[in-house]
Write a structure and sequence with these properties.
This protein has helices spanning about 1-15, 30-35, 55-60, 65, 70-80, 95-100, 105-110, 130-135, 165-185, and strands spanning about 20-25, 40-50, 85, 90-95, 115-120, 145. The protein is an alpha/beta fold. Strands 1-2-5-6 form a 4-stranded parallel β-sheet, with helices on both faces. Helix 2 (about 30-35) links the parallel strand 1 (about 20-25) and strand 2. The longest helix has 22 residues, at about 165-185. The radius of gyration is 17 Å and the shape is globular.
Length: about 190
């Protein structure tokens, strides 16, 4: 949240009020909360593969990737070490785990009146597609787009490198949708 606030402030100082926010995965939650709290400053919001429900994503995961890392043993590790390691890359601290229990980004979506574009692959193994599908169109100016067969980051399901033709086509499609959305609502 502090990064978003600082960035929004700098953009407003440089170019005036009215920003567009593009957020992906875990970054969607803070962006949604910022937008809900600063409705007069955000013209439009784009959510890409968003993690909208921390409980369903991290605490009681419904996606395969997190199920591997958050379990009884890792919670024991949390008590001993103060964090849970995801994929030996990300560390989730005890305070963040506690925040996951009370912060529900999807609940803030209903407070947002600006146009929201949500794009999510229906084979996402990291952020629950079903949650995005359920909450991704919170107002009449919003749109939800499914990328059929896409995993997290819009790569073709099973494409580990992102170099598959379908993965590249997905990314080009998503980039063009974002540009169109911002040209329509953000400018």
């Amino acid at each position: 949240m502090l990064d978003i606030k600082a960035t929004a402030k700098k953009i407003s100082e440089q170019w005036g009020d009215g920003i567009s926010i593009i957020a992906t995965s875990f970054g969607a939650g803070p962006s949604i909360i910022y937008t809900a709290q600063n409705r007069d400053k955000v013209k439009c919001l784009v959510l890409l593969c968003p993690a909208l429900d921390y409980d369903a994503t991290f605490l009681n995961p419904i996606v395969p990737w997190v199920k591997e890392f958050i379990n009884e043993e890792s919670l024991k590790h949390l008590d001993e070490k103060g964090y849970i390691s995801l994929d030996d890359v990300f560390k989730l601290g005890a305070k963040l785990i506690e925040e996951f229990k009370i912060i529900r980004p999807y609940e803030f979506l209903k407070e947002i009146k600006c146009p929201i574009l949500t794009i999510h692959g229906n084979k996402d193994t990291m952020a629950p597609y079903e949650i995005s599908q359920k909450y991704g169109v919170p107002n009449d100016q919003s749109e939800f787009i499914t990328i059929d067969g896409a995993d997290h980051g819009f790569v073709a399901f099973g494409d580990e490198t992102g170099e598959h033709k379908e993965s590249k086509e997905n990314k080009i499609f998503v980039i063009n949708k974002i540009i169109d959305w911002i040209e329509k609502w953000g400018v």
